[in-house]
Amino acid sequence: MYKDEFNLTSDMILEKDFKIDTRGYRLKEVDQFLDLVIADYEHFYAIIRTLEKEKEDNLEQIINLKQEIRNLKTNVEIVKAVDSSPISGSSNLDVLKRLSRLEKVVYGKQEEKEDKKN
Description:
The chain folds into 2 domains: 3-84; 90-118. 0% of the residues are buried. The protein is mainly α. It has helices at 10-14, 27-84, 92-117, and strands at 20-21, 24-25. The longest helix is centred in the middle third of the chain and has 58 residues, at 27-84.
């Protein structure tokens, strides 16, 4: 993903040979190479900071979305409970018919008991 953005690979660093001068390695060549290493490290750290921030933002968004899902599930359960209740969606006429049937059942049994007693 970020491979093309860097100056060096691990193999390039491992296989780097500096030319030897009379007093050791050529300082200018070593300094240039170390500048490349430093630039890559700074770029690595910048990428890491960016990805960490993105990860934190994503985690926060996931938490918010999970909470929203929980709230929606609760709302759906409430709506299902209300929709499944016998009165919801019924007109007044339906309610009156049901009440009349219940009264017949309740009071009809009482009348039968009274008739049997007399």
